[in-house]
Amino acid sequence: MVIEGRAWTFGNDVSTDLLYPQVAYSLPLEEAAQLVFSASRPGWSQQVERGDIIVGGTNFGMGSSRPAVALLRELGIAANLAESFANLYFRNCVNYALPALALNGILQLVSEGDSLRIDFSSGLVENVTTGEALRAEPLPEALLAIVESGGVLASLEAEGYLPPIQTGANE
Amino acid sequence: MTEKILARTAGREATAPGDILVCSVDRAVVLDMQFSSTAIPWREPLKMTHPDRLAVILDHGAPAPSTRDANGHHMAREFCARYGITDFFDIGNHGICHQVIAERGLARPGELLLCSDSHTCAGGAFNAAARGVGSLEMIQIICTGTTWFVVAPSVRVELSGTLNDACEGKDVFLALAGRYGSADNRNLEFVGAGVSTLSLHDRRTIATQCAEVNAEFSIFASDPVIDDYLAARGVDETAPVKPDANATYDETWTLELDSFEPQVATPGKIVGNVSPVSQQAEVKLDQCFIGSCANGHLEDFEIAASVLEGKTVAAGTRLIVTPASQRVYLEAVRAGYVASIMEAGGVVTSSTCGACFGYHMGVLGDGEVCLTASTRNFKGRMGSPDSEVYMASTRTVATSAVTGRLTDPRALR
Ligand code: SF4
Description:
heterodimer, B: alpha/beta, Aconitase, domain 3, 5-stranded parallel β-sheet
């Protein structure tokens, strides 16, 4: 799986309270997604475009289990890189089919706005803008398979555990 | 210990860090948010592999603070009725999931316990491999009874000595976070003579809070205190896991329980943000909060009541105390703790997650400063993104409610 897109950079210890503020709980997915980072970076959700990539610092996604990744998918975020992830957030990435890789030094490789090309099978991350590259531990095959199959809901539907959804609005 | 549980549930003899396992979940706990979420609207499964292993608990918004929550509760009731789920804790029997899990004996030694709340590691106090999963992953577990893990390396946390009476489990956890920082996605395994000198209440606070240092799992060695607690709840047979003498650990951390003084985490995050209360400059408080899965236990009521007995909450400061479950509430009423807190001017709310995640019953306004005994101090966690949350032990919070500013509990003796 290879993904190309424009990078947005963030610092260390970005919490799910910032990604998915509690006030968004009562809103439909579309409107909730407009509140991602509203406390730390107002206006970000409106600037983001489909196919963009998030690059975070250490412990990205710290905190609660809330489905912050669902909001990022709704905004069209195509991939998530970070120096390191909070483990629960990383599980959510895999299960929501948001390809994610942890990579030491990524914030040194990438400035905001750079174009990136990420090969999730080999772990190679190229900064197309600067020509520099770094290699991460690739996503384990079993986890990549979950991502490539479209995440947990798609598998559960295919296996007959969940009724198929008509609108496709579940992402 | 963690590896043994994961290996068993994956049908393996043994396992090692880096292995990817598909594990059969011994106990799965589903929450109200699963049903009321707008991000992942609830869809009833067509089939389930192990409905007998499920429990459903209403806690985050209980009783319902909104129509959406009320509708979610309704769906939870219908789901439990349809599938004959008897471990259903509806309003009246409700409480914060990790408290209900503990007091109903659902966290058991040697078992794999998963719940869609990040503080499920609370169950590690009972020698269970317990952790939080996402609500999407929970749908998979509800359906298939299984999920995946990448086995993490473990850190041995060696406890020794006895806690001094100014400190609680919260201070031990904060000291751990202050001294060692993040667990970096490794398991924390608490062992040593100090385990049994800690009360189960303190062990539960510590296990719960390990979510804040990014532990993959946090688990305590078992002892007779656990057996007695579970036996009193009708759980007689358990299969605790012990660390092998030659177990491999990534690192060893040591905590001498008698060496601590009361700690506080300053606003924003925990790791790298902890210091002794005695070293803090003056912090004026608008709100003091005691509650949550970590510190809404009966013992927290006992501590708060003993501090507040015959005193009053400072003018300009409000104290909110939220029991972790209906059972805690009832026992706190019977013991007279609720009266002591109310006579001092505190508010005792119904049991819920409530203010801990800024949802209801104690949400912070712009510019307000709160000292909490709950689990998190992140920006916006308890309400306005412009509010500030400090975190400390129940004794420190109760003491500070009396003075109206962050105060070392030893100062008010
Ligand atoms: S009390 Fe707070 S930390 Fe505990 S489960 Fe509820 S919201 Fe989460």
